């Protein structure tokens, strides 16, 4: 049976997708490696993010199911913030030189979880 015809499990309501502020930067690397990449964020939500990579020189070394370390830096109310989260590449779209990567957030420490939720809450409030 085709995936188009197969009923999809109901995963519940989707989280709101937010456009990240310009001061939000992210470095991504494969779990356990030292080489990191500055990758633009297309959008983010409470459970994940969509990263956009367009570089004609080289492709990111991430395939589906790659575990990645995410290091986000930004300022909230003028104070610098750093958040470290473990993620998993769940989707990859596009060609090698221009790709979108769907990242599901799978683990963070208690303080990082607090900072992540703080960041999202401040972004959501700015929409009102």
According to CATH, the fold-level topology is: Thrombin, subunit H
Secondary-structure element string: EEEEEEEH
Give the termini distance in whole angstroms.
Answer: 44 Å
Determine the number of helices (DSSP H or I, runs of at least 4 residues).
1
Strand content: 35-45%
Question: Considering DSSP H and I runs of 4 or more, what fraction of the residues is helical?
Answer: 10-25%
The CATH architecture assignment turns out to be Beta Barrel
Poorly predicted runs of 5 or more residues: 1-8
CATH superfamily: predicted glycosyltransferase like domains
CATH class: Mainly Beta
Overall domain count: 1
Class of secondary structure makeup: mainly beta
Shape descriptor reads globular
Strand order of the largest sheet: 2-1-5-6-7-4-3
Can you give the mean pLDDT? 82
Radius of gyration over alpha carbons? Answer: 16 Å
């Amino acid at each position: 049976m085709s995936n188009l015809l197969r009923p999809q499990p109901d995963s519940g309501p989707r989280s709101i997708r937010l456009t990240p502020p310009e001061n939000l930067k992210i470095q991504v690397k494969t779990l356990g490696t030292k080489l990191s990449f500055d990758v633009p964020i297309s959008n983010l939500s409470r459970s994940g993010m969509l990263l956009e990579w367009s570089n004609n020189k080289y492709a990111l070394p991430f395939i589906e199911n790659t575990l990645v370390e995410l290091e986000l830096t930004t300022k909230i109310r003028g104070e610098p913030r750093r958040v470290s989260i473990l993620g998993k590449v769940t989707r990859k779209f596009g060609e090698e030189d221009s790709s979108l990567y769907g990242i599901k957030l799978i683990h963070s420490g208690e303080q990082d979880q607090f900072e992540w939720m703080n960041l999202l809450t401040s972004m959501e409030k700015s929409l009102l």
